User: Which sequence fits this backbone?
């Protein structure tokens, strides 16, 4: 128990990146993620790594692309406005099968918005953001320990599928502190990358590109990508199923709202109301099968998000046709308290199909 | 066991450090902890508050608007958080900066302490926060003095290590005041 250290979410994430073998970080400051570059600026040089405070987010992500194309584990982190600037390069990396990790500690928007926590960038992360037909792998930690563990996982998945992986956390998860084990659950293994651009001496030249002008070339590449996304969907879904066995209402939430929901569930159960939680840890791949199976048995569903209903659409697509889906959202830096979730789950239990905003 | 507390005041009063001490001591005891700080733009003078949840099981929400207790180091903190305290809960109020009449709830345990005066009486005006911490330890019952003593080296920054004995004395004074009941 003493190997647990009181750790801030952002620091756990940064330390997770280091322990995942990330030695290249490029970034531009923005609240509420500044702890990450601040920590890595101190630590990376000690490990022989490279920390570059870039001139912009566009420069940061393109430096990540360069390091990643050379086969190195590279990362950048930012928040909403900065992540928007990175979308072109993210699309290029998705198109050229280049693995990287991009962290978004989400602040409220649109525009420059504010620095308060939100989940308003879910759609951008999960359903594109950049142009073209692609997906990021997207992980959504809900604890300081998961900030550490899922960052390591993000590097692993990015390399395994040669795909950009994003870690999205609201500012609350980034800035609060919990006891954390700062050692990997399993030893980190850096995979061979025979595709990497490491200098052609002694081998045939290699090319990393996202330009396919030949007849049918781009479509063929898209088919390869979609096969990859299906494989990710089949193999990599992670979700927590909490008190669902006897539940009459299922809450679906990720990040901070899932934490608040747990307290509401304990309070509800003390009142004899049987509620459970389905918490996606991966939002792409989305736990569609789990949502379908549980919602075919538990027809009252409550989706809680810190936005106006972004994951809600994925739940509506995945859920059983008879499921009644109730939504409670807090956008713009607002967040739910346990009593709010308790009130909303009672509405869901009564079969309300509303959007409470 | 489940306990949540909001500690609040203005920057420079040492709210963050006493929260850190409680959090680290609780972790050492094998308890789960969430520590949610929020503070204003300015380090001194801005608002500062911490929501701390301690439990012997998994902690869900790290936010609460129904805390079991609050430590209010100034009037703004008391006025904001006093109405939220659950009935039967605890309010520790720094009456050096808060008028006693403002402690208006009769369904909770009110513990008014003139922390600044007590600190000055000990010869160090900077340990007012430790007086409040001592009182909290005595009334919240999930930590003991030895737990706090055991983590001071770890929590207090190296450049301030020489302040530890004075801080511990202030914590003991706070415990003593709390043990003497309502004042």
Assistant:
């Amino acid at each position: 128990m003493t190997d647990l250290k009181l750790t801030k979410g952002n620091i756990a994430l940064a330390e997770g990146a280091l322990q995942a073998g990330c030695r290249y970080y490029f970034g531009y400051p923005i609240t509420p993620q500044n702890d990450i570059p601040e920590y890595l600026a101190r630590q990376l040089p000690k490990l022989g790594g490279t920390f570059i405070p870039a001139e912009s987010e566009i420069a940061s992500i393109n430096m990540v692309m360069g390091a990643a194309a050379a086969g190195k584990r590279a990362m950048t982190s930012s928040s909403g406005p900065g992540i928007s600037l990175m979308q072109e390069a993210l699309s290029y990396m998705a198109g050229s099968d280049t693995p990287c990790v991009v962290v978004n500690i989400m602040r409220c928007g649109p525009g420059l918005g504010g620095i308060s926590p939100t989940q308003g960038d879910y759609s951008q992360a999960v359903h594109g953001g950049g142009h073209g037909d692609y997906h990021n792998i997207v992980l959504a930690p809900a604890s300081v320990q998961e900030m550490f563990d899922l960052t390591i996982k993000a590097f692993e998945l990015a390399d395994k599928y040669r795909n950009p992986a994003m870690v999205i956390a609201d500012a609350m998860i980034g800035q609060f502190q919990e006891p954390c084990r700062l050692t990997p659950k399993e030893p980190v293994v850096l995979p061979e990358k025979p595709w990497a651009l490491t200098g052609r001496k002694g081998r045939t030249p290699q090319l990393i590109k996202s330009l396919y002008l030949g007849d049918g070339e781009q479509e063929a590449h898209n088919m390869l990508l979609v096969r990859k996304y299906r494989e990710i969907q089949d193999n990599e879904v992670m979700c927590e199923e909490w008190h669902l066995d006897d539940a009459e209402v299922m809450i679906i939430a990720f990040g901070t709202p899932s934490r608040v929901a747990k307290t509401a569930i304990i309070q509800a159960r003390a009142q004899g109301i049987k509620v459970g939680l389905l918490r996606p840890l991966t939002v792409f791949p989305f736990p569609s099968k789990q949502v379908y199976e549980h919602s075919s048995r538990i027809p009252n569903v409550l989706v809680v998000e810190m936005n106006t209903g972004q994951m809600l659409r994925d739940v509506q697509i995945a859920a059983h046709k008879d499921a009644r889906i109730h939504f409670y959202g807090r956008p713009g830096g607002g967040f739910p308290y346990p009593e709010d979730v308790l009130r909303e789950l009672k509405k869901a239990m009564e079969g309300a199909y509303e959007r409470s905003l | 066991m489940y306990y949540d507390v909001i500690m609040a005041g203005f920057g420079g009063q040492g709210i963050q450090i006493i929260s850190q001490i409680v959090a680290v001591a609780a972790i050492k005891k094998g308890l789960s902890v969430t520590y949610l700080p929020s503070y204003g733009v300015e380090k001194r003078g801005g608002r500062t508050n911490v929501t701390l949840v301690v439990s012997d099981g998994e902690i869900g929400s790290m936010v609460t608007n129904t805390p079991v207790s609050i430590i209010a180091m100034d009037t703004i903190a008391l006025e904001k958080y006093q109405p939220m305290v659950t009935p039967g809960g605890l309010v520790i109020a720094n009456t050096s900066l808060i008028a006693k009449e403002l402690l208006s709830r009769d369904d909770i345990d009110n513990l008014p302490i003139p922390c600044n005066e007590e600190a000055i009486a000990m010869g160090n005006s900077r340990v007012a926060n430790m007086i409040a911490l001592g009182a909290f330890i005595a009334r919240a019952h999930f930590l003991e003095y030895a737990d706090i003593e055991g983590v001071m080296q770890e929590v207090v920054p190296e450049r301030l290590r020489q302040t530890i004995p004075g801080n511990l004395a202030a914590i003991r004074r706070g415990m003593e005041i709390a043990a003497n009941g309502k004042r």
Remarks:
- Chain B has a mean pLDDT of 94.
